[in-house]
Amino acid sequence: MSADDLPSTYLTCAANFGTRLLIVMVLLLHCRFALAAESVAPEWLIPANADVPTRLTLHGAATVLDEKIEAALRLTGHSYAEWQLKQQLSTDEGTFSMWARPLWATGDQNSHTFATFKWSGPDNSYFALSQGWWEPQGRQKLYVVLSNQEFAFCMMPWTFNYTLYLQDQWTMLGVTWQSGNPGYLRLFVDGKRICERKLAFPGGRHALNPVYLGSDRGSTVEPRDRLSDMDIRHIAATPRASTDEEMHATYIRGGGVDRSKWILALASNDPAGDVIHERRLILDEDTAWTSSRGETQRRIRRIKAAGFNVYAPCVWDGAQAFYLASVGPVSSAIHDGADPRHDPLEYLIAVAHAAGIAVHPWFDIARHAPGSNFPDVYLAGAPKDAFNVQSKQFRDFIVALVVDAARRYDVDGINLDYVRAIGPCSNKECLENYYRKFGRSLLQDWKAQEQGKTVPSLIEWNRSAIADIVRRISYGMRRVKPNTILTIDTVPFDQSRLHQGLDEDGWLRAGLIDALVDMSYDDPIDIDTLDRAMKMFTPARQLVAVRDYDLFGDTAVDRSGEVMSDYVRLIRTRWPGAGIAVYHYPHLSSEQVLWLGRGVFAQTATAAWGQ
Question: Considering only CA atoms, which of 172, 266, 272 is closest in space to residue 531?
Fold first, then answer.
């Protein structure tokens, strides 16, 4: 029987049934997604008096502050509170965050516990978030212990005692985790990641109520009756790992600002020092400065307005030159059909000099980028994305490229980046030469240094090749331009770079280079390492380079002009006489230009390169 043979009543009923079934399916699907969304939504504790005692149990002097004035939980001395979670956290993945305001005095060296709770299982596993843990080694360190039984913990990685809390100010603390092999554990302060550990841990545990706020009672094997002495608010537990972007967004929505407390604690508003001879360098890895004469003029105007006096544009990116090089491949992007003889570097230098800005072209030495063909001997056995620095033919090429630019252009300086081997060479010639010289395996020695061991033969092997490049560039450049400044980009005392042939101290002592650009891109800056570098190399021989943007996952966000001004004041206060470098131009926002040019860089400076 076909549909045409059925009575119209049957057809109407069938149609109605089909419509109803579709509606039911849509509703079920909607409910499923709603339940799923609810299951990963954060559970919040603001807190409020209505939470007591159903969700919140107060102990000792713990009180809930007047919600009309400020909703928060006040915990003094050894007082604490117990929070009953409605939805369970697990070690599979999750997020835990809170805002804390210290009641302890500035300089207090006691430990203060923010939150602890137990995990399921017979082995006394616990979670802890605390300022100070596993004392005395962990005293005054911000710690998160996801699970003591899985050795999953994260802490402030530096030895310097950074200020994370200021009197009468709120600090947001956050933790995210994801189990797996590898899994990860991340610790955040004021919306920024300060620690990440990648490690294998299985998950499978669930949190046991209650969550102890302001107490270490949830730590099954570490309770020491640590102090609370804090106000806390906006505590959130989420059974999903939040992204870096989400943690930062939560901080901003909660009223946070991007000025770092640790900088404000260190930087003076009126630092002493000579600013009229200050070196103010901006690095530009974006080669769009070559795109037109108008863009070149625009960049120089903005750099001038911001108060910089040295500009380092990338002219060799490891694949091609962005000027009319007579050595090596030239980018097709710089060719001007209307004026085939136009050279963007020559034009840039003329415009910059007219504005009183020195130009230090930036060369990537050992880095190899896609885009050009090179002789096989330059690349045979080379590490990924690198040239083989053990190849004499490559060293001859890169030296000739840099020295030729110094000879042909009115440069004020040259900046060298990737002045290192990047990795081990692995072709037969490299392996045999290394064994012949040292009687050792090159690849085994490389693995040993990756494990933190110092391998003198590997240092000597790469240092010989890299020093050959630096020495010949320095001699060749100064032969044609005696007063030209030579700088290198580096991370002082880095174990891996040491084994890649970097020798800042030797090159400075030999007069081969004039200054180091310390790439201090971490947030917070590694204060201890820079303190050590300033003592060893002197501030006059260094520039501290900071980013003008923040990274939240893969998202780059321009820093505010006020934050960039804070960094300038920090460098002037902590390391008087050091130069200031900013990486890099594409993130130099109009707000930054105004804040710098009308504020900390308002006084014109002429770069002086000391000894």
Answer: 266
Looking at the DSSP bridge assignments, the partners of residue 364 are 417
Cis peptide before 102 (omega within 30 of 0): no
β-strand pairing of 358-359 with 362-364: unpaired
Tell me what pLDDT residue 611 has: 62
Check: CB of residue 607 under 8 Å from CB of residue 571: no
pTM of the model: 0.90
Euclidean distance between CA atoms 152 and 150, whole angstroms:
5
Tell which residue, 119, 172, 115, 171, has the closest CA to residue 150: 119
Of 399, 379, 396, nearest to 388 by C-alpha is 379
CATH architecture of 280-600: Alpha-Beta Barrel (3.20)
* pLDDT confidence of residue 32: 41
Phi, psi of 142 (to 5 degrees): -80, 120
C-alpha–C-alpha distance, residues 584 and 5, integer Å: 77
Q: What stretch of H or E contains 478?
A: helix 456-480
Q: End-to-end distance of the chain based on CA atoms, in angstroms?
A: 101
**Owner of token pair 């502050």:** 65
Exposed e or buried b per residue across 112-139, where buried means at least 16 C-beta atoms within 10 angstroms of its C-beta:
bbbbbbbbeeeeebbbbbbbbbbeeebe
Tokens representing 580 are: 């200031």
Q: Can you point out the beta strands (E) in 252-367?
A: 280-284, 310-316, 358-359, 362-364
- Cα dihedral value 495, 501, 505, 511, nearest 10: -160
Can you list the residues of the chain whose pLDDT is less than 50? Answer: 1-38
The 10 Å Cβ neighbour count of residue 299 is 22
DSSP letter string over 106-165?
TT--S-EEEEEEEESSTT--EEEEEES-STTTTTT-EEEEEEGGGTEEEE--SSS-----
Q: Which of 527, 601, 608, 526 is nearest to 564 (CA)?
A: 601
Domains in the chain: boundaries: 43-257, 280-600
Adjacent-strand bridge partners of 211: 83
In terms of DSSP bridges, do strands 93-102 and 126-131 run parallel, antiparallel, or are they unpaired? unpaired
Question: Is residue 593 helix, strand or coil?
Answer: helix
Cβ burial, residue 249 (10 Å; 0-12/13-18/19+)? middle
Backbone angles phi, psi at 549, to 5 degrees: -150, 155
DSSP classification of residue 540: G
Which tokens in the block code for residue 498?
A: 């040491």
Nearest to 206 by CA among 239, 236, 175: 239
3-state DSSP call for residue 63? strand
Rounded to whole angstroms, the Cα distance separating 255 from 243 reads 19
pLDDT of 186 reads: 98
Which residue is it, tokens 């579709």? Answer: 22
Question: What is the predicted pLDDT for the residue at 272?
Answer: 67
Tell me the C-alpha distance between 476 and 404, whole Å: 9
43-257: which CATH topology?
Jelly Rolls (2.60.120)
The residues, ordered by sequence, that sit 6+ positions from 162 with a Cβ below 8 Å of its Cβ are 156, 262, 524, 527
3-state SS class at 284: strand
Are 547 and 521 contacting, i.e. CB atoms less than 8 angstroms apart? Answer: yes
